[in-house]
């Protein structure tokens, strides 16, 4: 096989929302929550895509919090009513979230907040030595997965912006000057190619682009990303389909054709599995949200 190189990420399609793109109903969610997003800059640039911080003072139903899952790990600090259990854990909580393979959406009570590290895909194994697949579909205590963090400054901070700044400062101290392993870098490239290169339609094509056999690619994705190559490609196409549903008036059959589905029925099946709503119904919901 030929050699491979890291790729720079292409521009997102026109109309894309770089930090909010995977949220299924961004217009409605923006009216319900306060959010702060900081890039993973400086010493965090190779490890953290963003530090995100949300707060809300009214109920947020799962239909609004739903998003198209990203193939990465989130580390969160979460607060709310003392009687609430979130992700199966009593609040307050410090949690590690593995990749969610299907629809993600969470009913949130009348008030609360969460601040989190959105890790770069492929980062968790380099940072902890534990394969990413161990966490897929699971939410576990942060300290059980990655001990040694003192998150007191985050709990002491007031408001979404201050909590994001505090978590970023703690993460910079914990991550320090680490550098990704060769396999970690390759996993990052695989994820970017699957997400951004619309010319790659099959697992075999993705493997060829990074000079791996299909079996080696599957192992790399399992250990560093926690998902299969096929899931990466399907998720990327569903995200693109959602973008076109949200920003164009293209017929759903045309969207399916442009993005490489066999027909509209196959697009509907995959889109519904990941978002929980058929594309035709989702378009009607989005139109209502914007009105």
TrEMBL record:
Listed InterPro entries: AraC_XylS_family_regulators (IPR050204), DUF6597 (IPR046532), Homeodomain-like_sf (IPR009057), HTH_AraC (IPR018060)
Family annotation (SUPFAM superfamilies): Homeodomain-like
Chain segments annotated as transmembrane: none
A Pfam family that the UniProt record links to this protein: DUF6597
Superkingdom of source: Bacteria
Boundaries of every HTH araC/xylS-type domain copy: 187-285
Classification via Gene3D superfamilies: Homeodomain-like
An example Gene Ontology molecular-function term: DNA-binding transcription factor activity
SMART domains membership: HTH_ARAC (SM00342)
UniProt keyword terms in alphabetical order: DNA-binding, Transcription, Transcription regulation
Protein known as: AraC-like DNA-binding protein
Organism ancestry: Bacteria, Bacillati, Actinomycetota, Actinomycetes, Propionibacteriales
